[in-house]
Amino acid sequence: SDHPEIQEEIYRKDDRLLTLLKDVYVESRDPPVQVKDGAGEHLPCKQEEKRLTKLGHLGDLDVKKVPKGKISIVEALTLLNNHKLHPQIWTAEKIAVEYSLELKEVNSLLEFFIPFAVQEFPKETKKAI
């Protein structure tokens, strides 16, 4: 409202533009409707194969079932710790079989994820820290 010339420009008709718009023709059609034959309506959906998790004493903290080829958080921590403590027993091959995993994924997991050890200092050394 402070600039009436702007408002006038906004509402002014542009005869050249209106003439050009009259030459524009747009045709819009819906895609053809596909008829359902009913043959696939009652097919059961593919069930994802699951396995019970191996949780031990931490069972209350984690899920009970996971899809094959996957592991739960507690299982991941457990297998990483087992491998760290006993690498000659808990090899990548044994872990892959035990947890229904791909060997290359287990190798990547063991290479890139290393659990750290929490160390608690005796009370007398806390003051020195």
From TrEMBL:
<comment type="similarity">
    <text>Belongs to the NDUFAF4 family.</text>
</comment>
<dbReference type="GO" id="GO:0005739">
    <property type="term" value="C:mitochondrion"/>
</dbReference>
<comment type="subunit">
    <text>Binds calmodulin. Interacts with NDUFAF3.</text>
</comment>
<dbReference type="InterPro" id="IPR009622">
    <property type="entry name" value="NDUFAF4"/>
</dbReference>
<dbReference type="Pfam" id="PF06784">
    <property type="entry name" value="UPF0240"/>
</dbReference>
<protein>
    <recommendedName>
        <fullName>NADH dehydrogenase [ubiquinone] 1 alpha subcomplex assembly factor 4</fullName>
    </recommendedName>
</protein>
<dbReference type="GO" id="GO:0032981">
    <property type="term" value="P:mitochondrial respiratory chain complex I assembly"/>
</dbReference>
